């Protein structure tokens, strides 16, 4: 049933899940998902709500741990780390795997500190070097021009779109190799969405981007590869062009043409 | 069932309004009873003495058996009237001739029979209150055995009477000198010059008539400020001594002591309470939390008298043994011990509310901190605490309001001495910390049973209640205001 013809012949696999199942108490959120992800590409995860795509994403940097009753079976590798191995350094894992959430979550501090906190914590940067990192991250997130004069203001005063780009800058300041995005544009207006899509493409030149989205056009626009989840199973996975033009599975076609979900 | 809903709605209205009214009525009652504080009539008194010219400073009765002063009073109907002191003095002209002179000894007809050492010359010392223009006449003369050419009129305020606090203008003047004695008239402002002496030519009285023809001095006390302002000034003075002959009702030492011990208690309690809340909310396993949170709330409901007793039996002796030497503690019952036990009272309250506040910090902030790879310490210190800051401040203030009004612990442990704390040097501070003290609520509790109904003292105790009420309401309102800002937009 699962489409397992992986199209990553010429790609370097940076994240791989093998036979991955996730449980929350009695409920099984992911059912034996096997999914390799290519380096320096944008991979979109799509599917109806509750299909397990967010669970998959959050399993990669162990953000599911706090949820009561969380259990995981199967193997995951991300970069050269086994996140569920006994010797994993969680700080190191999360330094190398950044994440952007659905809703912008600025921390209760100034704009500058929001961006600086990760770099300070991981690299012990101070003073000028820190300023540079912050500026670079903000520039990369296309926010610098808007906030360069108000860096000391509380981050909560920014608009929603700015806050989301601030969260991206915050993540970039830590310089992660893999970026997980959990519906990063769903709370944003079209202009902000467009900016963040541009950013994803830009980021994928040097980093691996995995993005969960409900927006089919977005997946088609920005992603190189697309995986379709339903009821916790991986239904289809392939290069985005072919995936959207000629889906192999009936369920995929129904979903992307808007007939359900 | 619609009528049931209506009934319920009406019940809610009536209850709400009634309860609000009851609260208002309670405050009105307390504030209204405080009006008796302003019924103060401001007693005043000066010691006066005629002394031999070479006498020592001692102005006690009997020390100078040859000179005497006698107050002139309109005699009450029973001849031994205890009210005579508050009866206005007669005029100078009415003194001459027919006026009775009272002494502690029985009235005597022959001046030579007076035993000067039995004369109670301090009779004029009794408390006096006055109306506009009241005069108090004092006759001065020497007994026949007096041998010197001059004598001295000495005056000083009664012990405990402070002329500067009195709402009277007090003037001591010579009204009349004896016939044939040449003396300059004087007019002394007793507020500027509360004690002093002045030399006069001697006047020896050998007959009854000569006594009333001797020196006549007068103290005139004129109210020059309204009693309201004088009371108010008294309230904000620095001594609480309501049982003295000249009572002082300064609430500052009590208010400062209560504030000091509350602040100190919250300084002790806040870090511990916040740490406890962080542990419960962020670190403890859910199963442990299920046990610890109710246990904490249970401790918060321990009657404070139990805490006070525990403090008296255990904490006070321990502190005394441990720090007594180093800090010069005379007793385990002091401000420091009180603050420690108040902190024990506050910790569960603050921790419990703080834990609730931390729960309202959205999970997304914790996830963001974790996804950034921050350590747990960084997450708690840099993300969670700032996010919950206003809520935690509100929790601390709720605890502070509870501590501020706490009566039993302070009563049991504070030591009970109302004195103005001095914080001018480090030594003073440590002395205040280990010194006996007394707060507002326990003062009300201790003294309420002993005051005369609707007396000035009674009024001041209610006034203390008003202050306490206002302070706690203020702290609670601040907590409410700060807590309301805890609306986390994510």
- Gyration radius of chain B, in Å: 33 Å
Mean model confidence by pLDDT of chain A: 87
Q: Give the biggest sheet of chain B.
A: 5 strands, antiparallel
How many separate domains make up the residues of chain B?
Answer: 2
How many beta-strand segments of chain A? 9
Low-confidence stretches of chain B: 73-88, 97-108, 116-124
What is the straight-line distance between the termini of chain A? Answer: 19 Å
Average pLDDT reading of chain B: 81
Strand elements of chain B, count = 10
* Percentage of residues assigned to helices of chain B: 40-55%
Q: Give me the number of helical elements of chain A.
A: 10
The computed structural class of chain B is alpha+beta
Q: What is the quaternary state of this protein?
A: heterodimer
3D architecture notes:
The complex is a heterodimer of chains A (261) and B (490). By secondary structure, chain A is an alpha/beta fold. Chain A contains ten helices and nine strands. Chain A has helices at residues 53-60, 90-96, 111-123, 127-140, 144-147, 160-173, 190-203, 216-222, 240-245, 250-256; strands at residues 13-24, 27-38, 42-46, 70-78, 97-100, 178-182, 208-212, 225-230, 233-239. In chain A, the strands form two sheets. Chain A has a six-stranded mixed beta sheet, sandwiched between helices. Chain A has a three-stranded antiparallel beta sheet with strand order 2-1-4, with helices on one face. In chain A, β8 (225-230) and β9 form a beta hairpin. Mean pLDDT of chain A is 87; it is low at 1-5. With 490 residues, chain B is α+β, with helices and mostly antiparallel strands. Chain B has two domains: 44-227, no CATH class; 251-484, MetI-like fold (Orthogonal Bundle). Helices cover 48% and strands 12% of the residues of chain B. Chain B has helices at residues 2-33, 92-95, 208-212, 227-235, 252-283, 286-300, 304-327, 335-360, 363-371, 376-387, 389-404, 408-413, 426-434, 440-448, 456-484; strands at residues 46-52, 67-71, 134-142, 150-157, 168-176, 187-189, 196-201, 215-223, 240-241, 248-249. Chain B has a five-stranded antiparallel beta sheet with strand order 2-3-8-5-6. In chain B, strands 1-4-7 form a three-stranded antiparallel beta sheet, with no helix packed on it. In chain B, strands 9-10 form a two-stranded antiparallel ribbon. In chain B, β9 (240-241) and β10 form a beta hairpin. In chain B, α5 (252-283) packs across α11 and α9 (363-371) runs antiparallel to α10. Classes of the chains: A alpha/beta (261), B alpha+beta (490).
């Amino acid at each position: 049933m699962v489409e397992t013809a992986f199209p990553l012949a010429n790609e370097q696999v940076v994240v791989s899940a093998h036979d991955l199942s996730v449980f929350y108490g009695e409920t099984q959120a992911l059912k034996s998902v096997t999914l390799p992800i290519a380096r320096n590409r944008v991979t979109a995860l799509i599917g109806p709500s509750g299909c397990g795509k967010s669970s998959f994403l959050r399993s990669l940097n162990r953000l599911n741990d706090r949820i009561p009753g969380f259990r995981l079976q199967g193997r995951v590798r991300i970069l050269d780390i086994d996140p569920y191995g006994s010797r994993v350094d969680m700080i190191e894992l999360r330094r190398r795997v950044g994440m952007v959430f659905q809703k912008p979550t600025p921390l209760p501090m100034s704009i500058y500190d929001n961006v600086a906190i990760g770099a300070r914590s991981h690299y012990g940067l101070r003073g000028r070097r820190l300023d540079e990192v912050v500026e670079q991250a903000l520039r990369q997130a296309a926010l610098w021009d808007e906030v360069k004069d108000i860096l000391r203001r509380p981050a909560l005063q920014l608009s929603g779109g700015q806050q989301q780009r601030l969260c991206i800058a915050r993540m970039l300041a830590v310089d992660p190799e893999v970026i997980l995005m959990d519906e990063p544009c769903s709370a944003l207006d079209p202009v902000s969405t467009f900016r963040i899509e541009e950013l994803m493409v830009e980021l994928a030149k040097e980093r691996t981007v995995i993005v969960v989205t409900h927006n089919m056009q977005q997946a088609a626009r920005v992603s190189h590869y697309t995986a379709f989840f339903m009821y916790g199973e991986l239904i289809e996975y392939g290069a985005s062009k072919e995936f959207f033009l000629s889906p192999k599975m009936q369920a995929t076609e129904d979903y992307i043409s808007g007939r359900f979900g | 069932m619609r009528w049931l809903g209506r009934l319920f709605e009406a019940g809610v209205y009536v209850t709400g309004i009634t309860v609000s009214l009851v609260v208002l009525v309670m405050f009105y009652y307390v504030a209204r009873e405080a009006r008796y504080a302003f019924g103060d009539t401001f007693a005043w008194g000066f010691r006066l003495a005629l002394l031999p010219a070479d006498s020592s400073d001692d102005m006690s009765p009997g020390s100078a058996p040859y000179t005497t002063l006698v107050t002139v009073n309109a005699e009450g109907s029973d001849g031994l009237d205890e009210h005579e002191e508050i009866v206005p003095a007669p005029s100078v002209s009415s003194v001459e001739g027919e006026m009775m002179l009272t002494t502690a000894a029985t009235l005597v007809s022959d001046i030579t029979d007076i035993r000067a050492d039995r004369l109670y010359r301090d009779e004029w010392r009794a408390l006096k209150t006055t109306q506009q223009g009241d005069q108090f006449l004092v006759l001065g003369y020497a007994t026949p055995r007096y041998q010197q050419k001059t004598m001295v009129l000495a005056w000083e305020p009664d012990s405990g009477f402070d002329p500067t606090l009195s709402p009277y203008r007090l003037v001591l003047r010579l009204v009349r000198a004896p016939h044939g004695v040449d003396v300059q008239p004087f007019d002394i402002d007793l507020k500027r010059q509360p004690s002093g002496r002045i030399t006069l030519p001697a006047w020896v009285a050998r007959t009854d008539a000569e006594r009333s023809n001797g020196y006549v001095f007068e103290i005139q006390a004129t109210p020059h400020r309204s009693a309201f302002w004088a009371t108010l000034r008294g309230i904000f003075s620095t001594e609480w001594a309501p049982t003295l002959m000249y009572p002082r009702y300064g609430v500052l030492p009590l208010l400062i002591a209560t504030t000091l011990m509350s602040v100190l208690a919250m300084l002790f309690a806040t870090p511990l309470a916040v740490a406890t809340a962080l542990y419960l909310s962020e670190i403890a396993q859910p199963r442990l939390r299920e046990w610890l949170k109710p246990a904490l709330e249970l401790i918060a409901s321990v009657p404070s008298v139990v805490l006070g007793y525990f403090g008296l039996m255990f904490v006070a002796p321990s502190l005394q043994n441990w720090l007594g030497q180093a800090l010069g503690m005379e007793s385990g019952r002091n401000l420091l011990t009180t603050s420690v036990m108040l902190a024990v009272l506050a910790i569960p309250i603050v921790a419990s509310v703080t834990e609730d506040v931390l729960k309202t910090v959205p999970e997304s902030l914790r996830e963001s901190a974790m996804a950034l790879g921050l350590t747990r310490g960084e997450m708690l210190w840099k993300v969670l605490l700032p996010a919950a800051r206003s809520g935690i401040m509100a929790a601390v203030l709720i605890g502070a309001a509870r501590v501020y009004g706490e009566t039993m612990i302070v009563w049991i442990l504070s030591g009970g001495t109302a004195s103005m704390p001095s914080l001018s040097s480090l030594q003073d501070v440590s002395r205040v910390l280990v010194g006996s003290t007394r707060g507002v609520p326990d003062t009300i509790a201790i003294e309420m049973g002993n005051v005369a109904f609707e007396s000035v003292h009674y009024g001041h105790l209610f006034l203390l209640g008003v202050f306490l009420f206002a302070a706690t309401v203020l702290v609670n309102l601040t907590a409410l205001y700060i807590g309301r800002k805890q609306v986390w937009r994510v």
